[in-house]
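It is time I had a proper look at our fold encoding. Can you supply me with one protein entry, sequence and fold together? It will help me judge whether the discrete encoding reads sensibly. Leave the record below and I will have a look:
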Amino acid sequence: MSNENNCPKCNSENTYHDGNLWVCPECFYEWDPAELAAAAQAEAQAGMVLDANGVALNHGDSVVVIKDLKVKGSQSGIKSGTKVRNIRVVESNDGHNISCKIDGIGAMYLKSEFVRKA
């Protein structure tokens, strides 16, 4: 027997279909498989870092800056069209989710909304 209708809470096989929901008689949990699938997909996409065009970015990708960016402590900023190679996607709470090294400037963090995948 497949485990597609096992209880997501207690993993019991003793489940039954009741209208639009599945019910587990052991832990009394009720769920809609369509909602569980949508929630799992949203959770998977939440961890993804997307560029300005909505394309997923990964470690080692090359990106192009799409907007002139000012850099603190530097007379010149990052010009639009600058290509950045070998990025690292990092976890961040301030929006700077790309770690990279830019020629002439050095190591820094960028926001993914200002780059596009090359």
Q: What stands out?
A: The chain has two domains: 1-46, 50-117. The mean pLDDT is 88. The domain at 50-117 is CATH 2.30.30.40 (SH3 type barrels.).
